[in-house]
């Protein structure tokens, strides 16, 4: 019994050993990207001459905050963009994305999503669900959508045909979100951008980069995206950033986003960093490592659950562009059992039993497993999903591969205990 105090069926342990054997070539391939991205991040630190003065915080307006301003430049180097805005005052990924949409779009403009339905929390913001005051729709900004095809690929012809004179922004979601679909990799993002810019070079191409950062060698901004956004309690916070989000892209677009965060005129010049700078730097420094651990965990989970007879997406050997591993359980009970098992592998709140419930921003009931140091930091190790067809859980994150391995085995054990998994 390798799992020490954790009661795991020996047959599951055997399956885990087999899965680890089969993923070896994939892990080697991942490592090559990780080495590249570690160097990319280190280069950015050194080029901006990061020093310990930058860890000092400011108070009040936070004018001339050298640590904050330099961190913006470090992020801009990682993304190869003119500017970046990295702030603890950006409360989440949804907020970072909102800054970009509200920053750029004006009444009469159209937003075109070209990778199917946007992430759940953007529906109320755009105004396609609910009655939240202040949605884009209420401001006279229209919305149009092109779905992915049956194989999960962007439909380039339909995208070109959907562009109208009033199309101001095209939005691409890199990660699958809560959907049983492919994630959109950098090569596909590049192809979409070429099509869009060919029709109208003035269109702003925005990429929701949540969960995608540092998974491939290139970021969307290196293949023509004008603006990207994401959360610091996902990939780029490295499990260390206690809160925050970022925006990166063309200088004038990042400033428009900053004007929404604060106010026109003060934009990116204000925002006290208090004592958070070191954590944000250190999080970015560790981000390639943590992304690597999470990816290895996802690949293991894919191999294990496939061998147990569950449909998984992506397959363990597939090229990845995000951290998400979907596992189809096929029933609400399966989702609950999986999440309750994974929760037992958490350092925090391991004794609580996750149950489905409502969540701000989500239309369906959601179940979430994640006993994390930072509240809701799905990059630590989590599994969640809306209780709806096809009843999948989305597993992501992990600060160390070994913790993911254990958590995933506990999820499988829970399915076995409930009779949902038969060996
Ligand atoms: C997590 C996520 C978001 C929203 O981020 P929050 O930090 O939860 O607000 C948006 N888009 C995608 C694809 C995500 O994975």
Q: What labels describe this entry?
A:
single chain, 423 residues, seven-stranded mixed β-sheet, five-stranded antiparallel β-sheet
Report what the structure shows.
It is a single chain. The radius of gyration is 21 Å and the shape is globular. The chain has eleven helices and twelve strands. The longest helix has 31 residues. It is an alpha/beta fold and 423 residues long. The strands form two sheets. It has a seven-stranded mixed β-sheet, with helices on both faces. Helix 4 packs across helix 8. Pyridoxal-5'-phosphate binds next to helix 4.
Shape: globular
Bound molecules: pyridoxal-5'-phosphate
In total, the number of strands is 12
Helix count, DSSP H or I runs of 4 or more residues? 11
Secondary structure elements and pairings:
Layout: H1 10-22, H2 24-47, H3 66-79, E1 83-87, H4 93-104, E2 110-113, H5 122-126, E3 142-145, H6 156-162, E4 167-173, H7 186-199, E5 204-208, E6 227-231, E7 245-249, H8 251-261, H9 277-307, E8 311-313, E9 325-328, H10 332-343, E10 366-369, E11 382-386, E12 392-396, H11 401-417
Parallel strand pairs: 2-3, 2-4, 4-5, 5-6
Antiparallel strand pairs: 1-7, 6-7, 8-9, 9-12, 10-11, 11-12
Bound molecules: pyridoxal-5'-phosphate.
């Amino acid at each position: 019994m390798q799992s020490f105090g954790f009661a795991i069926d020996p047959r599951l342990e055997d399956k885990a050993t087999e899965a680890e054997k089969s993923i070896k070539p994939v892990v080697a391939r991942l490592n090559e990207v990780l080495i590249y991205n570690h160097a990319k991040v280190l280069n950015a630190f050194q080029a901006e001459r990061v020093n310990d003065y930058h860890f000092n915080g400011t108070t009040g307006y936070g004018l001339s905050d050298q640590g904050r301003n330099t961190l913006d430049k470090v992020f801009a180097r990682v993304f190869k963009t003119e500017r970046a805005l990295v702030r603890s005052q950006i409360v989440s990924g949804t907020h970072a994305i909102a800054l970009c949409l509200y920053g750029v779009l004006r009444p009469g403009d159209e937003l075109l999503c070209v990778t199917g339905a946007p992430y759940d929390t953007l529906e109320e913001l755009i105004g396609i669900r609910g009655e939240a005051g202040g949605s884009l729709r209420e401001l006279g900004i229209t919305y149009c959508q092109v779905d992915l095809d049956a194989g999960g690929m962007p439909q380039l012809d339909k995208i070109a045909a959907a562009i109208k004179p009033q199309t101001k922004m095209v939005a691409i979601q890199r990660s699958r979100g809560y959907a049983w679909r492919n994630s959109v990799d950098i090569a596909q993002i590049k192809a979409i951008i070429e099509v869009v810019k060919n029709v109208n070079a003035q269109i702003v191409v925005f990429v929701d980069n949540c969960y995608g950062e540092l998974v491939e060698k290139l970021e969307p901004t290196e293949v023509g995206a004008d603006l990207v956004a994401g959360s610091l309690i996902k990939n780029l916070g490295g499990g260390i950033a206690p809160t925050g989000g970022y925006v990166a892209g063309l200088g004038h677009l990042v400033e428009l986003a900053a004007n929404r965060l604060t106010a026109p005129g003060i934009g990116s010049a204000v925002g006290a960093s208090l004592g958070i700078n070191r954590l944000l730097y250190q999080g970015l420094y560790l981000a390639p490592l943590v992304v690597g651990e999470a990816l290895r965990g996802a690949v293991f989970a894919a191999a294990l659950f496939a061998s147990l007879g569950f449909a998984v997406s992506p397959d363990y050997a597939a090229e990845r562009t995000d951290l998400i591993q979907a596992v189809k359980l096929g029933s609400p009970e399966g989702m609950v059992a999986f999440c309750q098992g994974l929760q037992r592998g958490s350092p925090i709140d391991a004794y609580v039993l996750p149950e489905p419930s409502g969540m701000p921003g989500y239309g369906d009931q959601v179940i979430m497993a994640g006993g994390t140091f930072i509240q809701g930091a799905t990059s630590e190790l989590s599994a969640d999903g809306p209780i709806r067809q096809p009843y999948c859980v989305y597993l992501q994150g992990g600060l160390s591969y070994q913790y993911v391995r254990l958590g995933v085995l506990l999820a499988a054990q829970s399915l076995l205990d409930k009779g949902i998994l038969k060996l």
